[in-house]
Amino acid sequence: MKIKKIIECDIDNELTENIQELLTECFKDIYPNNRIYFKQVPHFRFLVFNEEKHLLAQVGLDYRVMNLNGKLIKVLGIIDLCVSREYRSKGIASLLLLEIDKYCVKKDIDFLLLFADNKTLYLNNGYKSVKNKCKWLKIDDRNQTILGIGYEERSDLMVKNISTNEWTEGDLDFLGYLY
User: What positions does the domain N-acetyltransferase occupy (predicted)?
Assistant: First the structure.
């Protein structure tokens, strides 16, 4: 297996089709089938290929500033981590999370952040489950239009500390869209 980092604007048509196929397979009924992002394009991705150069897994990453209880924090958001059905339960998702950890070394990042329905993988890889009252820009994912501002407590958040900063519960302003 080979992991490749690719900047979003460098993805060509063939790779777009491969990513789109994987995302549609993994997020069948919820993922828009005409693009390779849900609400907004990530800054970059890690892609996993086998020896035959077939795409096995992917994860999008989004770097931004957020406001946690009045304090600005730098967050690398993990978006749409997925593994092809045929290759699941082989450690590939954990391998991607490890690659993200390696990427973060000596970078100006305070936390990794993601949303998860099933938290087992992330708990096993050093993430913790948190509850915060979140504020975000609501986007209609089908029409790509702004719906307003969302504000509610979220219990599906998971974080991993990268810096010496500690995560606190309370208000989290995404200063943008929700992953």
Answer: 1-163
Higher pLDDT, 116 or 29: 116
| DSSP one-letter string for the chain | -EEEEEEGGG--HHHHHHHHHHHHHHTTTTS-TT-S-SSS--SEEEEEE-TT--EEEEEEEEEEEEEETTEEEEEEEEEEEEE-GGGTTSSHHHHHHHHHHHHHTTSS--EEEEE-SS-HHHHTTT-EEEEEEEEEEEEETTTTEEEEEEEEEEEEEEEEE-SS----SEEEEEEEE--
The mean pLDDT of the chain is 95
The pLDDT, as a whole number, for residue 33 is 67
End-to-end CA distance of the chain: 27
pTM across the whole model:
0.93
Q: Which two tokens stand for residue 99?
A: 């690659």
| Rounded average pLDDT over 1-23 | 95
Q: Domain ranges in the chain? A: 2-177
As assigned by CATH, the class of the 2-177 domain is alpha beta
How far is the C-alpha of 138 from the C-alpha of 116, rounded, in Å? 18
- Residue 141 confidence (pLDDT): 79
Tokens 């693009």 found at? 35
Instruction: Count Cβ atoms below 10 Å from residue 49 Cβ, excluding itself.
Output: 15
